[in-house]
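Problem 3 from the worked examples.
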Amino acid sequence: QVQLVESGGGLVQPGGSLRLSCAASGFTLDDYAIGWFRQAPGKEREGVSCISTSHGSTYYVDSVKGRFTISRDNAKNTVYLQMNSLKPEDMAIYYCAASLGSWCSNDMDYWGKGTLVTVSS
């Protein structure tokens, strides 16, 4: 059974850090481009970061550049999103998704169910 499971969300104070994990089962993550998306209440889903299948090319939306880092551990079949210097506007449900293509888009092949990130003092 193909499955993506996110973990690592939670409550953090502004300026704090979290590391989200996206673990795959039923398929090999390194064959897929992996993206992190987020959706805040009342807002549209936003692409946050992407890592390609080959060469490990990465993308970050402008609002997280310099604060978030995406990485993959193929041995663990897991992709991570390290989030530092978190801001209240980062608060959202974060989803990981996989694309058999070489890059991310809104039309990904598999989606996780999401993990909630709350940034509040």
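Problem 4, a separate protein:
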Amino acid sequence: QAQLVESGGGSVQAGGSLRLSCAASGYTYTFNCMGWFRQAPGKEREGVATINTGTGSTIYADSVKGRFTISQDNAKNTVYLQMNSLKPEDTATYYCAATFRAYSLYARHYDYWGQGTQVTVSS
């Protein structure tokens, strides 16, 4: 059974930066796609960024384009989310997710999820 473990969340002031990490383990096949999602209280989970692990192609939500960067280290089975110019509206629990079957920002396409890490941005 695959496991995803996130780290790197925390509290920052607006304009600051954080880097999230997601380490994958316990599987023998390469995921087709790994992504980051977030969920704020009272809101639905939304896709933030995803990366095709084979080609390196990426997709970003419009709300984070130019500020967030997703990357991968295949040797470490780890995906990162570099978040710059953070805004209070970026406050949410961030989840790492992975799938063998899609390349999208739709949560329903993802089969494996981490436990989440909290990001809080103060104004």
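Solution to problem 4. Residues 65 and 114 are 23 Å apart (CA to CA). The two ends are 40 Å apart (CA to CA).
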